[in-house]
Automatic annotation (TrEMBL):
Belongs to the class-III pyridoxal-phosphate-dependent aminotransferase family. It comes from Sandaracinobacter neustonicus. This is Aspartate aminotransferase family protein. It comes from the Bacteria. GO terms for molecular function: pyridoxal phosphate binding; transaminase activity. PANTHER family: GLUTAMATE-1-SEMIALDEHYDE 2,1-AMINOMUTASE, GLUTAMATE-1-SEMIALDEHYDE 2,1-AMINOMUTASE 1, CHLOROPLASTIC-RELATED. Coiled coil: none annotated. Its cofactor is pyridoxal 5'-phosphate. Keywords: Aminotransferase, Pyridoxal phosphate, Transferase.
Amino acid sequence: PDRGSNSSKLFDRALNVMPGGNSRHTVYFPPYPIYAARGEGAWVTDVDGVKRLDFINNYSSLIHGHCHPEVTAAIARQAGLLTAISLPTEAEIELAEIICARMPSVDQIRFANSGTEGVMMAIKTARAYTGRRIIAKIEGAYHGSDDTAAVSTYPHPGRFSPPESGIGIPEPGSAPGSAADVLVLQMNDVEGTRSLLRAHGTELAAVLVDPLVKNLAYQPASIEFLTMLREETKALGALLIFDEVYSLRLGFGGAQELLGIKADITAMGKIIGGGLPVGAVGGSAEIMSAVYDQREGKARVSHGGTYNANPLTMAAGVAAMRLFDRPAFERLNRLGDRLRDGLTAVVEATGADAMVRGAASIAGLFHARGGGQTYRELAKVRMDNPDMSRKAELFFHHMLNNGVLMGGPGFFILSTAHTEADVDHVIEQAGRALELIKAGKA
Ligand code: PMP
């Protein structure tokens, strides 16, 4: 840390006018976050002139890194035409067509401005379509900040209710009753979940699931678990919602295509906006038009939004999604394989107590072995490995001081702007960091 640095001074200024110094918890890290000045492809330059490889990519939304010339040109072109207007534009149809063509379960889509809204709309769609109240979600899974979706995202281990009760806990600040209509499931617990869903079958509107849960150390939902969710929801007359805000990049047509599971409703965000704010909900024409088509007085859910499908986001999204074609998708996944293989090799070579997780263009390195699938098991892993968060912090700071911006809890997110050399630099520095941590020198 350098208290005389521009970043440190900006943070002091920010603390005067914003609680915690920011509008987004995840940008903070101690002792002060570095402030960004500009981005270029895989690189980000901070306000002190230091250049680093960006392996966060705005929490996975920048599929082509920073300022891809074609995305920037599309934004500039649109900015010269119009940025926001109370009329629909063709760009909205274009982006909808691209996404509907790629996602087997999505015939129709509606846009909003954040993944949080995409998930919120998915939940409303399910409740309006089924006329039922309960949403089931997985304990510890982050789905944005809608009250329902946020239930039991970070429950305190001292407050766990018995898993077979399905009882959730509202997040601080949520409506006190927000957990009353939520059923909390344990990740990958096939039989326990089946019984819980059946016990609430007549009131169950939908199960909300993210197929790769970032804050469960990238625990993937097992095929067995997802297949059970698909079968049970169908049998109970409930809907299956995939939260693909984060996971869309796992398959060319989203994680659903990769996994061979068809959701009824899909929440989207991040990469589809080409780096500008976006969220969306999509599904079959049967469900979507029953809920949202305002002609003939059919609509059951009112859906407005001053900036929904704003032309700037739509133009950036069209440019980005066109560039993210199959060859680009496949090349990016090969870089992801290279990174995970390389990280696994340095973990083995150093004998570090760590595990490598992730899929496609996402990799995670977590400082404990063995994992644990559920939030509760991971909480126990953390209790049994009290030095985990200190190691993660040392690792993060080593990477930061050696040219790599990564996700604090231990993740790396690739973009098409990355090269093999960029990936190899991460692997080399990860190896050094693990050696230093082991030797107690980091
Ligand atoms: N769902 C998932 C799985 C996410 O990862 C996120 C964001 N990290 C969200 C929803 C919320 O998206 P946004 O931040 O755009 O509101």
